[in-house]
Design goal:
Keywords: Hydrolase. By secondary structure, this protein is α/β, with parallel strands linked by helices. 34% of the residues lie in helices and 25% in strands. The chain is built from 16 helices and 20 strands. The radius of gyration is 21 Å and the shape is globular.
Length: 450
C-alpha cells in the first residue's frame, strides 16, 4: 500500500517535459509513476499546479553572523517554505576541518528541516592535505577556492595553490569538483582603494565600482585555464556580470575545461538601483540592469547551469546599513524568496521557459554535485522531495511573515507571483499553504561517493 498519491498535477520530467501522470510515494521514496494509481493512505490533489522536484540550492552560508544551530533551524525552514528541500553548505576558516565537520553534521541532523551536503573552502596546505580524509570520513566531494578574499576577514589564495588543489581533485575522479570564487584580487583591491578614498560615504551604486566586472571575467579565464591543465571539473560560483557570463560562453564553446556556471537569484532579479539601498551590499556586488539581462540570456542559452542564493542571513542590527558603504556588512537573507523571485522575474516578466528555470534549480545541481538520481528528479526510487508549484499564486513579501530570523528582505513590499502551495520532504507534507508542519531535525546530512 502506498503512503500517498499526488494526482491531477502536471508532473515535470527534465527529459520529457510535463506529463499527465500520478506520483505514488512509499517510505519516503517515489514508488510509482503512472495513471490511475490506487491504494494509498492519503491523496494530494495538485489540480492546476506543477508537480516538480524539490529545489536544490547549491550555495548557502550558515553560522557567519549568528550561532550555527540557530541559523540551521530557522533558515532551513525558510528554505522549505520557498520550495528548497536540499542545500549545499559552504564552510570556511583556516583551521583543520577534521575536528569540526562531525559536530556540524550533528547539528544539521538535529536542527535542519532540509537535507544538506557540504563544500569545504581550502585556505591552507594542511587543509589541502586533509581533503581525501574529509571525503573518507564525511563524504565531502566538493572543495572551494577563493581567487579573491574578503577584506579584513580572510585572504585569497594563489593560482599555484589553486592548481595544486585542482590536481588533487582531478585524481579523485569525475564525481569530485572544485568550486571557485572568481574575482581578481589585485583589480578589486585597486578599485576598492580608489572608490573608498574618493567616496567613502557612497551608495550601493558606488559599492558596485569596488568590484568591476573585468575582475570577474579575468578570473573566470584563469580558473578555466587551470582546470583545463589539471583535468578537474570546475564550478564557478555566483557569476554576477554579463561580462563574466559572456566570457564563460566563449570558454565553453572553445576550450577543454569541464566547467559549470552558477548565478544567483539576486543577480537575476535585483540590481544596484534597488530601493533597498545598502541592504543589498554583497560580494561580488549587485550590478546594472544590463547585467540582469545578460545573465537571463545566459540562463536561456545554457551558459548558466545552476541557480543558487549565496544566502548570508543576518538582521538589520548586524547589517549596519547606517554605517554607510564601507561599514555595512555584506550579505542578505534570500532563501525563502529564491525560487519564487526567479519564477516571477524569469517566467512571468521575461517569458523564460519554466522548464529551463526548474531544470537549473533541481536536476542540474543534483548531477553536478553527485546527488542524482537520489535528488533532483521525480523518478521511481528517488527521494520524495516534491514541490507543488502554483505559478499564479501571488504574495506580497513582508519580512515579518517569512520564516527566516532575519528582519529584512530585498523584495520587501513587492508582489511576487509563483509560490509553492505544498512541499513534501522525504514523502511527508512539510509545508502547506503558509505553514510548516514538520519539526526541526527532519532533514539529513548527505554523504556523497566518488
Amino acid at each position: 500500500m502506498l503512503d500517498l498519491i499526488i494526482r491531477n498535477g502536471k508532473v515535470f520530467n527534465p527529459e520529457k517535459g510535463f506529463l499527465d501522470v500520478e506520483v505514488g510515494i512509499k517510505d519516503g521514496k517515489i514508488a510509482e509513476i503512472g495513471k490511475n494509481l490506487s491504494g494509498a493512505a492519503e491523496v494530494l490533489d495538485a489540480s492546476g499546479n506543477i508537480v516538480m522536484p524539490g529545489v536544490i540550492d547549491p550555495h548557502i552560508h550558515l553560522g557567519i553572523f549568528n550561532d550555527f544551530a540557530v541559523e540551521c533551524e530557522h533558515e532551513t525552514r525558510a528554505a522549505l517554505a520557498g520550495g528548497v528541500t536540499t542545500c549545499g553548505l559552504f564552510m570556511g576558516g583556516d583551521q583543520s576541518y577534521l575536528g569540526q565537520v562531525g559536530g556540524l553534521i550533528d547539528v544539521i541532523e538535529a536542527k535542519s528541516s532540509v537535507d544538506m551536503f557540504m563544500h569545504l573552502a581550502i585556505f591552507t596546505p594542511d587543509q589541502m592535505d586533509e581533503m581525501e580524509a574529509c571525503y573518507q570520513e564525511f563524504g565531502i566531494t566538493s572543495f572551494k577556492f577563493y581567487m579573491a578574499g574578503v577584506k579584513g576577514v580572510f585572504p585569497n589564495v594563489s593560482d599555484g595553490f589553486i592548481l595544486d588543489g585542482f590536481k588533487k581533485i582531478a585524481k579523485f575522479g569525475d564525481n569530485a569538483i572544485a568550486c571557485v570564487h572568481c574575482e581578481d584580487q589585485s583589480i578589486i583591491d585597486r578599485a576598492f582603494d580608489e572608490v573608498s578614498a574618493q567616496n567613502p560615504d557612497g551608495t550601493l551604486g558606488d559599492w558596485a565600482k569596488t568590484g568591476p566586472d573585468i575582475a570577474e571575467e579575468e578570473a573566470i579565464m584563469r580558473a578555466c585555464y587551470l582546470a583545463e591543465k589539471a583535468g578537474n571539473r570546475l564550478y564557478i560560483v555566483h557569476i554576477s556580470s554579463k561580462a563574466g557570463a559572456d566570457r564563460l560562453a566563449k570558454i565553453k564553446k572553445n576550450e577543454g575545461a569541464a566547467v559549470f556556471g552558477e548565478t544567483t537569484s539576486a543577480y537575476l532579479t535585483v540590481n544596484k538601483d534597488g530601493a533597498f539601498g545598502l541592504k543589498g551590499k554583497m560580494l561580488p556586488p549587485l550590478r546594472d540592469a544590463s547585467d540582469n539581462d545578460g545573465l537571463w540570456e545566459a540562463v536561456k542559452n545554457d551558459t548558466i547551469d545552476s541557480l543558487g542564493t549565496d544566502n548570508v542571513s543576518m538582521t538589520l542590527e548586524v547589517k549596519q546599513e547606517e554605517k554607510g558603504m564601507l561599514g555595512a556588512m555584506p550579505g542578505y537573507p534570500i532563501l525563502q524568496t529564491h525560487f519564487p523571485a526567479m519564477i516571477n522575474e524569469g517566467y512571468h516578466k521575461r517569458g523564460v521557459d519554466i522548464e529551463k528555470i526548474i531544470t537549473k534549480a533541481t536536476v542540474n545541481p543534483a548531477k553536478i554535485f553527485g546527488l542524482y538520481p537520489r535528488k533532483g528528479i521525480i523518478a521511481e526510487g528517488s527521494d520524495a522531495d516534491i514541490v507543488i508549484l502554483d505559478l499564479n499564486l501571488s504574495r506580497t513579501v513582508e519580512s515579518k511573515e517569512l520564516f527566516s530570523y532575519s528582519d529584512f528582505s530585498l523584495f520587501e513590499g513587492q508582489d511576487i507571483k509563483g509560490w509553492p502551495r505544498t512541499v513534501l520532504k522525504g514523502g511527508k507534507v512539510a509545508y502547506s499553504d503558509g505553514k510548516i508542519v514538520v519539526e526541526p531535525g527532519s532533514g539529513s546530512f548527505l554523504k556523497r561517493k566518488l
